[in-house]
Amino acid sequence: MSARKERTSARRTRRGARQKASFAQLPRQKVINSFKPLEIISEDQIEAIHNASMEILENIGIKVRHPEARDILKKAGQKVDTDTEIVYFDRDFVMEAISHAPSEFTLHAPNPDCNLEIGGRNLVFSMVASTPNATDMDNGRRTGNQKDFRNFLRLAQSLNVIGTCGGYPVEPVDIHASIRHLECGRDFATLTEKVPYIYSLGRDRNLDGIEMARIARGISHEQMLKEPSIFTIINSNSPLMLDTPMLEGIMEMARHGQVVVLTPFTLAGAMSPVTLAGALAQQNAEALAGLSLAQTVRPGTPVMYGGFTSNVDMKSGAPAFGTPEYAKATIATGQLIRRYNLPFRSSNVNASNVADAQAAYESEMSLWSLVMGGANFVKHAAGWLEGGLSASFEKVIMDVEMIQMMIEMMKPIDTSPESLGLDAMREAGHGGHFFGTQHTQDRYETAFYTPILSDWRNYESWAEAGSPDALKRANTIFKTILADYEQPAHDPARMEELNEFVDKRIAAGGVKTDF
Amino acid sequence: MSARKERTSARRTRRGARQKASFAQLPRQKVINSFKPLEIISEDQIEAIHNASMEILENIGIKVRHPEARDILKKAGQKVDTDTEIVYFDRDFVMEAISHAPSEFTLHAPNPDCNLEIGGRNLVFSMVASTPNATDMDNGRRTGNQKDFRNFLRLAQSLNVIGTCGGYPVEPVDIHASIRHLECGRDFATLTEKVPYIYSLGRDRNLDGIEMARIARGISHEQMLKEPSIFTIINSNSPLMLDTPMLEGIMEMARHGQVVVLTPFTLAGAMSPVTLAGALAQQNAEALAGLSLAQTVRPGTPVMYGGFTSNVDMKSGAPAFGTPEYAKATIATGQLIRRYNLPFRSSNVNASNVADAQAAYESEMSLWSLVMGGANFVKHAAGWLEGGLSASFEKVIMDVEMIQMMIEMMKPIDTSPESLGLDAMREAGHGGHFFGTQHTQDRYETAFYTPILSDWRNYESWAEAGSPDALKRANTIFKTILADYEQPAHDPARMEELNEFVDKRIAAGGVKTDF
After folding, report:
1. CB of B501 within 8 A of CB of B174?
2. Which of B101, B67, B1, B379 has its CA nearest to residue B244?
């Protein structure tokens, strides 16, 4: 084991996941994006898209499919057509409402070491979520189930650069839908120490999720109201519609001071105009509509604006991800969101059916554009395949490597006189080498990023080892991590209370599933 | 065939390579990088690196292993130590010399449609070069040979986003070294219409290359002197040394007004300090030394500054590429080069042994950093594997896909009222769809990038087709392109003159190979 690995392992034991030295990853850390956000559209173009979205809100309106939500908006002075369920949002109301949203906040985890800083220049990566299938090289592609679900949670707990999960990494359909959120919430609180997530599939689930998050942290309802400890994604039913469970999610999470991430699913050419400008204008209208409702329910409630605009394959109608259009939309979305001073949620996505070169280059298009675009929270950062239809164990490892490389790239360059190293050049001499210089000896252990997956052996050594490609190596690595996984130590009283709550709710039949 | 492909094919027939419709690529085009260059170091840090490099030039000096070159520099007032061969460059001399270099120029090709605009916001991609091995899925890895060399030239000719080759894509070692540059020059002028390259391996080769380039363009020596029509790479022998053939290359190319690309091979931890700042300071000193010699020989001669700083794997000493350090060095190099107003040469590199996910993510690290860093000319843009020890036919296709995606990403976003598409939203209605709207129908053929390699079929269709991963699909594509390849029509008189020249030089025994 190299000296560098030893050091990293030691640090990990203190600060990160309890893991064996067989896997030398970056330590748990807060990631600050040091780059000035990239601009792909001009100030005038930002205003053109903003104004188009305001026109959409005022003149075309948003269909709000929940009477309570319409009442709240009506009382706030918005024009509501009860027959069509369309609410016409006034632009001054929208801008005033979202001005109350915090630009930065902390998402609190059961283990405070796993708290997430959201907004500003912070950058948080979260696991793939909501896929119907799991896949790995050994067992192939199969329908989501609790065993795979739990293994993805174990990876999420073990991987230091993965802040949390943004939903079930894979949907465990072997658990009945009425109690799935309860069993999964329990699994999550047992197998990880990180910030929980709740799907907005009806008010009761949101309330159960909030209560489980509170119990896992061992805090009072009052403290919970002040400290966001769970989050949900609200996808508008693009175009220009918010449905009943999504609206209940907005209202319940806002009432409890928990985090609403409003992400329109604006696929250009399908659920939004075929043009990027049109898709972005519609995305903006939908996001601001939902977020202004959240801020009306409880001014100052923590929220994020999610950008998910991509395009479809016009030959098949299938969604495409990690495309040039996706990258452009991501960068432009960052510019729009900064206009409103809101935290920016993005995603690491691709449309490949296998964790191959396509999966990697589409993911890099996503990752680079979201880093350049100044995103704060990355859903689906590790493991997503097939446009979200599969969670891949091997892809988790590839993505973590790509994420670690991005994190390392954002570290500043030291240009101190010692770093400039003129004495080392004198020591090496013209045509000499630097391996043996004191300057190198003092620094070689920490000078460069050590990869977890990349194989830099020469061709002959690599061929002798059986020519393992990145997919094969990732397969070995994820299994090593699972074998090394140790369940975190939780407060026994909190776990007892959580189990009691979950058992009681399951005994009562869970939640309705018929809407 | 989709309507979009038809359109693209038609355009290609007119403007790009003559190719069958089986492969729908982007048309031949000048690429303008629309992004403001990214900054990774401050103005003060740029000055710190600049000043360190000036101190290196003045006080440590550069070993210049050619008496003629030392004489030129001595006559220009530089301090020369004849015993050690070290030249101490005065900073005012260096800055004055390089101020004569043009910031933009045209590299002229035998077919003017293939001219390359170098510098400014232009971005040109060129083929992998100088690898000792070729590889593909069918025949595996083999020593470079003329057959593979010619097939890579055919790909370079057929692929519209590939501006030219920056050297032999693979070294054809079955041609004797004394006549290799002649046979390869003839092959290049026969199989492509693009700008030729000559290795700086002794004065005679440079002169042969320049003459072949002149004949292939059918122009006079006088016109040739005014119109750069061939280029060479000069790698300093880092640290801080320029050897005999490289110095002859600088002098001969400059005398003839042809393009010198000065690229120090500063691998941090091996041939340069282990710190990025040290490696960059040394790179800067070496590049500016060579470039100031070129400008002294002939003020105003066209040059580029090449950034190739990367790091080694400190465990094995092997070069690593596409690393976080490589990306940082690339972005910082762009900042340095813009200080001197010179064109910036970079590379698309990786260290993978196979065209897998690692090859793709390391390449994307290279491509994104060089695009963000404002590079002008990209060597090794397509086909490089194994840190440059293999040229891969499949990787060419993967890289062309990645390059096309970058090009598409740089196209501006249209935010005109028509593009914002509010009428389409009214037509689609709340919760409706956009496939059938007039707005979509008017635009769907051209709205999005059509990939050449990415597979967006659903999992079931893809599995039914045999689950081909990106490597397998790239294999099919490169063979299709080779099967469809048609040799360009050349001026018969020029070809006759070229053949006469090459045959005569070969009959005379070619060049000396014993230095």
Report:
1. no
2. B67
Whole-angstrom distance, CA of residue A211 vs CA of residue A213: 5
**Chain A, chain B: beta-carbon pairs less than 8 Å apart:** 390
| Nearest-angstrom CA–CA distance, B454 and A166 | 27
**Chain B residue closest in CA terms to A57:** B422
DSSP E strand boundaries for A274-392: 303-306, 310-312, 319-320, 344-347, 377-382, 384-385, 390-392
Alpha carbon distance B324, B143 (integer Å): 31
User: CB under 8 Å to B382, separation ≥6 — which residues?
Assistant: B125, B127, B128, B155, B159, B162, B348, B395, B396, B399, B400, B403
Q: Is A246 on the interface with B (CB under 8 A)?
A: no
DSSP A388: G
Contact status of B67 with chain A (Cβ, < 8 Å):
no
CA-wise closest residue to B55 among B88, B11, B93:
B88
Residue A143 β-bridge partners: A133
Q: Which neighbouring-strand residues pair with A124?
A: A377
Q: Which of A413, A435, A443, A467 to mutate to test the interface with B (most CBs of B within 10 A)?
A: A413
Whether A193 contacts chain B with CB within 8 A: no
Burial of A134 from C-beta contacts in 10 A (0-12 / 13-18 / 19+): buried
With CB atoms and an 8 Å threshold, state whether B273 touches A445.
Answer: no
Q: CA of B23, closest CA in chain A: separation in Å?
A: 16
Do the strands B390-392 and B319-320 form a parallel or antiparallel pair, or are they unpaired? unpaired
Structure-token pair, residue A9: 């392992």
Cis preceding linkage at A239, omega within 30: yes
Residue A444: partners with Cβ closer than 8 Å, 6 or more residues away:
B269, B274, B314
- Dump strand ranges (E) for A23-132: 31-32, 62-64, 79-81, 86-88, 104-107, 116-119, 122-127
| Cβ-Cβ contacts under 8 Å, A360 against chain B | 357-358, 360-361, 364
Scored b (16 or more CB within 10 A) or e, B350-374 reads bbbbbbbbbbbbbbbbbbbbbbbbb
Instruction: Indicate the pairing of strand A86-88 with strand A79-81.
Output: antiparallel
Q: Is the peptide bond before A319 cis (omega within 30 degrees of 0)?
A: no
Q: Which two tokens stand for residue A163?
A: 């802040």
- Asked if A395 and A385 touch (Cβ cutoff 8 Å), the reply is yes
Please write down the long-range contacts of B85-91, taking CB distance under 8 Å and 24 or more positions apart: B86/A430, B86/B61, B86/B62, B87/B61, B87/B62, B87/B63, B87/B289, B88/B57, B88/B58, B88/B59, B88/B61, B89/B57, B89/B58, B89/B61, B89/B62, B89/B288, B89/B289, B89/B292, B90/B57, B90/B58, B91/B54, B91/B57, B91/B58
**Two tokens, residue B277:** 């700042």
Tell me how far the alpha carbon of residue A140 is from its chain's centroid: 25
pLDDT tens for each residue of chain B, 515 residues long:
333 443 333 333 334 444 445 678 999 999 999 999 999 999 999 999 999 999 999 999 999 999 999 999 999 999 999 999 999 999 999 999 999 999 999 999 999 999 999 999 999 999 999 999 999 999 999 999 999 999 999 999 999 999 999 999 999 999 999 999 999 999 999 999 999 999 999 999 999 999 999 999 999 999 999 999 999 999 999 999 999 999 999 999 999 999 999 999 999 999 999 999 999 999 999 999 999 999 999 999 999 999 999 999 988 888 999 999 999 999 999 999 999 999 999 999 999 999 999 999 999 999 999 999 999 999 999 999 999 999 999 999 999 999 999 999 999 999 999 999 999 999 999 999 999 999 999 999 999 999 999 999 999 999 999 999 999 999 999 999 999 999 999 999 999 999 999 999 999 999 987 65
The two structure tokens encoding residue A394:
């091997």
Asked if the C-beta of B49 comes within 8 angstroms of chain A's C-beta atoms, the answer is yes
Taking residue B411's Cβ as centre, other Cβ atoms within 10 Å add up to 14
CB contact, 8 Å: B101 with chain A?
Answer: no
